[in-house]
Design brief:
Distance between the termini: 69 Å
Number of strands: 11
Largest sheet: 7 strands, mixed
Shape: elongated
CATH architecture of the largest domain: 3-Layer(aba) Sandwich
Radius of gyration: 29 Å
């Protein structure tokens, strides 16, 4: 049952035109050759695709099904060929980028917007990954860049800070601590906290533990959730309060109230953009520069 793309493209032309003469003109082929190729396809498939009369051509049920599938196949092949040509010419690329929850609600969307405006032919594949997972995938060349919490020392990976956030407590509107303009670790020590799980929030969770320990306080985790959506849902339900980096962009103070956390010395959570030293393509370089420019708005003093 051997057949090739020529069989499919010829059949599609005939099926769309429902006329062998017009299909032959469209394909710049002789009409007998078009008829022969379609007959070969029917013979090799063992099904009738077209009903031919002296006056018109009609599709069988099998022919209608094959037409839809063949159109999709040929369309995907055209896209693949065009993309391959653009990639070869350097005018188009695909960047695989990892991000954390901390960067996913504001920093990465802002960078992606600016980068796409300046580089419309570059496709961004954004994937949520924990910071340790991003480091592994950068080393394994499974992603091109990663937004990780904290720096990463490696002879194979280069990184630079692109954001620095102060810690913020997020509270339900009626919580007593909303009466204070800012909070201390001592204020939070007696509260039931809602935090991300160690599996999904390993680096940020460790940072919070360190802040409490440095202040001589014990972290009281009343409830865990794996996603930011789950954490904020628990906070709005009054289960507890959480600690995050800034106010999530999609929240309003009618549901969540932010209060800065004051420590001495001030505590910052840094996000670094990381990439392989040997993988600096033009698209990667442009993304790094866009991240540096946009990230200036996220460097908190």
């Amino acid at each position: 049952m051997r057949y090739d793309l020529k069989h499919l493209s010829t059949f599609v032309a005939v099926a769309e035109e429902l006329n062998f003469h017009r299909a032959a003109e469209r394909l710049t082929m002789a009409q007998p050759a078009v008829s022969r190729i379609v007959l070969e396809l029917e013979d090799r498939l063992g099904v009738k695709l077209l009903i031919r009369t002296t006056r018109k051509v009609r599709l069988t049920e099998s022919g209608r099904y094959l037409l839809e599938e063949a159109q999709e196949i040929l369309g995907r092949i055209d896209v693949a060929i065009n993309t391959a040509r653009l990639l070869a010419s350097g005018t188009k690329a695909i960047l695989r980028i990892g991000y954390t929850t901390i960067t996913g609600h504001s920093l990465v969307p802002d960078i992606a917007r600016e980068f796409r405006l300046a580089n419309p032919d570059v496709r961004l594949e954004l994937t949520y990954l924990t910071s340790p997972a991003q480091r592994d995938k950068i080393l394994q060349d499974e992603i091109d860049l990663g937004f990780i919490v904290g720096s990463f020392q490696s002879s194979e990976i280069e990184s630079r800070p692109v954001a620095r956030h102060r810690l913020v407590a997020l509270l339900p509107p009626r919580h007593p601590l909303t009466q204070k303009p800012f909070l201390t670790i001592e204020d939070l020590a007696g509260e039931q906290l809602v935090l991300g799980t160690n599996t999904e929030w390993p680096t940020f969770r460790r940072s919070i533990v360190d802040v409490f320990q440095n202040a001589g306080q014990v972290l009281n985790v009343g409830q865990e959730a794996s996603s930011l959506t789950g954490i904020l849902g628990l906070v709005t339900a009054g289960v507890g309060i959480t600690i995050f980096c800034g106010m999530p962009r999609f929240c309003g103070e009618d549901a969540i109230v932010p209060r800065p956390i004051v420590t001495d010395p001030p505590v910052y959570i840094e996000t670094h953009l990381a990439w392989r030293r040997t993988s600096i393509s033009g698209a990667v370089h442009n993304f790094i520069e866009t991240s540096r420019t946009v990230g200036k708005n996220y460097i908190m003093e």
